Amino acid sequence: MILLCGIPSESPIAMVRDALANLGVPTAVFNQRNFASNHLDFDLGSHGISGSLSIGDQSFDLTEITGAYSRMIDDQTLPEYRNSAPDGPEQQRCRNLHDALIHWLEITPARIVNRCRPMCSNSSKPYQAQLILQLGFSTPETLITNEPDLVREFYARHGRVIYKSISGVRSIVQKLTPPDLDRLDHIRWCPTQFQAFVDGTNVRVHVVGREVIATKIETNATDYRYASRQGGESELSAIDLSDELSERCVSLAVGLELAFAGIDLKITPEGEVFCFEVNPSPGYTYYENHTGQPIAMALARYLSGSH
Questions:
Q1: Is the Cβ–Cβ distance between 259 and 113 less than 8 Å?
Q2: pTM, rounded to two decimals
Q3: How far is 106 from 305, CA to CA, in rounded Å?
Q4: What are the tens digits of pLDDT across the range 74-121?
Q5: Is residue 307 part of a domain?
Q6: Rounded to a whole number, what is the largest CA-CA distance in the chain?
Q7: Are residues 262 and 131 in the same domain?
Q8: Which of 9, 28, 125, 178 is deepest in the core (most CB within 10 A)?
Q9: Which tens digits make up the pLDDT trace of 8-27?
Q10: How many angstroms separate the CA atoms of 137 and 249, rounded?
Q11: Last residue of some domain: 196, 217, 238?
């Protein structure tokens, strides 16, 4: 039995659910929005973890759950949570249920994609960048500051610079332009990450266990995810990495303790490889829908233990 946690209509969960069905693997879906009708009890004793998960009128023995894929959103953003009385019993039930589920996901011997603790490295881009360096990848020269004069010096030295958030919240990568230099006083209240622009080809690598699926992105936008917003275009296609680079990507994911990772690389014309970040909960369907690469099936096979 594979447990899927989150919003069932979200495409990453929906596609892996279909892939598991194609493999003949039974699934249970913990729909966060139905927290009022879900219940979890577990005990940790000398003989391991025991307990049950009730979803609606169905009950599942926790020992029968051999894998779980979690893409849960912050439960406090759920419409049903916001519409309940502040600090009332419904909100308390919702919080307690999610807390219990997160704790169980951390300690169960089942295959989990991914546990919360290792995912937290992505909450701080500077911290994760240090881990990426330790695990053998290069990163662009970076400045994190709220001092405008330091940014001006960095820009003068590199000529082409991008900027983005340092948090785990997705931000749109933008080029720093001369007009932006007149607005730098705004960063005094919001430390920002600036990086030397790297020429080359964007590559997203999905690592699932030891399986590597790489996608090349050709774009004329600064941030290919928002190409249309930036007046550009993006074209995605499958690419084969060298055995050496594939193994480095697997080692990076293993080093970060991520069973499933989305690794953002840029490969320069000279063949130098830079790593920008590692996404611990990648929205892989964007890549699969554009290329047909079987990422959902690879994830389903990993969760079911068939590879």
A1: yes
A2: 0.92
A3: 18
A4: 998 999 888 888 888 999 999 999 999 999 999 999 999 999 999 999
A5: no
A6: 64
A7: yes
A8: 125
A9: 999 999 999 999 999 999 99
A10: 9
A11: 196
